[in-house]
Amino acid sequence: MSGARVLRIGTRASKLALWQARHVEALVKAQAAAPAVELVHIRTQGDAQRDVPLWQVGGRAFFTREIDAALTAGTIDVAVHSLKDLPTALAPGVTLAATLERADPRDALLSASGAPLEALPQHARIGTSSLRRRAFIARRRPDARPVELRGNVPTRIERLQAGDYEAIILAAAGLTRLGLAQHVTQYLPASDFPPAVSQGVIGVCARSDDAVTLACLRPLDDRAARLAVSAERALLSRLEGGCQVPLGALAELVGQELRISACVCAHDGSRELRASATQGLRQGAALTVADAVALGERVADELLAAGAAQLIAQQRESLAVTAP
C-alpha cells in the first residue's frame, strides 16, 4: 500500500469504540509499508437514542448503519465494529474483511456488594439493556428485577456505584479492553448465560472492491475467530434472530474441532431450547468457513425442529415488535 494514501477508519466515539479503532490502527501500522491512518468519528442511531430500550426501536444495525453508509459512500475506507452489533446481512458492496482474535466472550456480573448472582438479595435490581441477558436472569434468578441500563461502559459502572442497581451485567471483553476488569464480581458461565453471537470479536469491514484496503486488512484476520463467528452468524441468520430475540450462542475451535452450542429462551425464562454440534476434520482436510457455516445452520435447524420459530414469534409478539 502506498505510504501517501491515508486509510480512513470509521468508528463511534465511545471509549470502547475508540479503543477498538485504535487497536486496529496499531495493527495496521505494525505492517511493512503501512499507510497513514485517520480516525473518523461517526454518530449512530444507537448513540442518539439512549433513552429508548434498543429492543423498542424498529429495525437493526443501531450501532453500525451510519458507519457502513459512510463506507459505501466512500467517505471512509474501513469500518470497525463490535461484531455482535453487526447484522448478518451486510450492506451491498461491504465485506467482513477481518475478524480479530476473540477476547473473553462471557458476560460479567458487577455487584455493588461484591455478591455473586446467586447471593444477590431478593428482588435485586439488575441493570442490562439486553433482552438476552434479561431472559437468562429470569431463568436463573426469577425473583430479580431487570432494569434498563444504557450509556457507555464507564457510565454504567458509575450508575451501579451510585446505587441505581444492586448489580449490572456487561460484556467481559469490553471491561478488559478498557482496563475495568477489577470491577467484575463474577464471570457468568456460558452454560448459564450463553453470550451474544460474536461477542468478544472486533469486526473490520471494507468495500468489497477495494483491493488495496482488503490486502492491508487480510493479515489481521484470526482463523479461530473467523471460524467461530462464521458458525454463530450462520445460526443467527437461519433463525432470523436479532436484539429482540433472547438467543445466545458460542462456537469454539478446540484443536481441530469446531464446537457450537446455542440457546433460545423465553423472555420470562419459562422455556428454553438448546442444541449443540461439533465438526471435525473432513478426510484430513482443515476446517473451512463453509464447514463452519454448515455447522451453524445445522444447529439452527435442530432448534427450529424443536420449536424455535414458534418461540421466537411468540417473544416478538409479546414485545409488539414486527419481525424484519
Structure description:
The radius of gyration is 20 Å and the shape is globular. The N and C termini lie far apart (40 Å). Strand 12 (257-265) and strand 13 (272-279) form a beta hairpin. The longest helix has 17 residues, at 223-239. The mean pLDDT is 90. Helix 8 packs parallel to helix 9. The chain has 324 residues and is α/β, with parallel strands linked by helices. It has 3 domains: 6-100 and 201-221, 3-Layer(aba) Sandwich (D-Maltodextrin-Binding Protein, domain 2), CATH 3.40.190.10; 107-188, D-Maltodextrin-Binding Protein, domain 2, CATH 3.40.190.10; 236-318, Porphobilinogen deaminase, C-terminal domain (Double Stranded RNA Binding Domain, 2-Layer Sandwich). The strands form 3 sheets. The protein has a 5-stranded mixed sheet with strand order 2-1-3-10-4, with helices on both faces. The chain has a 5-stranded mixed sheet with strand order 7-6-8-5-9, with helices on both faces. The chain has a 3-stranded antiparallel sheet with strand order 11-12-13. The chain contains 10 helices and 13 strands. It has helices at residues 15-29, 45-48, 65-73, 131-140, 153-161, 172-177, 211-217, 223-239, 289-305, 308-318, and strands spanning 6-11, 36-41, 78-82, 94-99, 107-111, 125-127, 145-147, 167-171, 186-188, 202-207, 247-254, 257-265, 272-279.
